[in-house]
Design goal:
- By secondary structure, the chain is of the alpha/beta class.
- It has one domain: Leucine Aminopeptidase, subunit E, domain 1 (3-Layer(aba) Sandwich).
- The protein has five helices and seven strands, in the order βββααββαβαβα.
- A seven-stranded mixed sheet has the order 1-2-7-6-3-5-4, sandwiched between helices.
- α4 packs across α5.
- The two termini are 16 Å apart.
- The structure holds adenosine-5'-diphosphate.
Length: 177
Amino acid sequence: MEMKIGKTTLSLTRGDITEESVDAIVNAANSRLAGGGGVDGAIHRRGGPSIMEECRKIGGCPTGNAVATGGGRLGAKHVIHAVGPVYRGGNSGEPELLRSAYRRSLEVAKEKECKSIAFPSLSTGAYGYPIEEASRIALETVMDFIKEEDWFELVRFVLFTDKDLDVYRKTLEDLGD
Ligand code: ADP
């Protein structure tokens, strides 16, 4: 699924984000930038050890923020390590923190002059954020940024399962109404 907002193409696709050839891919990192399972494990495995070396030097990243490293052996030039919130019921600032993680990722990508960026579904795996709510925050935040800045050529969400892609697609359709 694809739509055009200004000069930016917003696209939703199913796949493995480590295979994306874009300027930046976003990682669902933890605040210690310590590596983990899920998409983080896949990015470090495929990208090689230079990404973790840079993460160690940076030291950490607060929840709701994002930091950039190189892309190592990945097809992407940069990895933007975004720290989404752990879901604790929804009344602990999770929506704001998730929104901020997306927004900061876009800001950092723009600072690095990236024109194309791919996101996974932040916080909806091990961090337990319900994907219907998370997808609305993800897409709203990205669409708001695109409308404000008109900087990116491509913003893509790479969803890992057909079910996740379906949820994002429905949310995007609802937001368009
Ligand atoms: P978090 O800790 O932020 O919840 P996870 O990595 O556990 O991060 O999960 C985030 C999302 O990334 C989940 O929807 C998961 O299915 C998905 N995911 C896992 N591996 C990949 C991958 N290689 N490419 C894209 N998405 C992935």
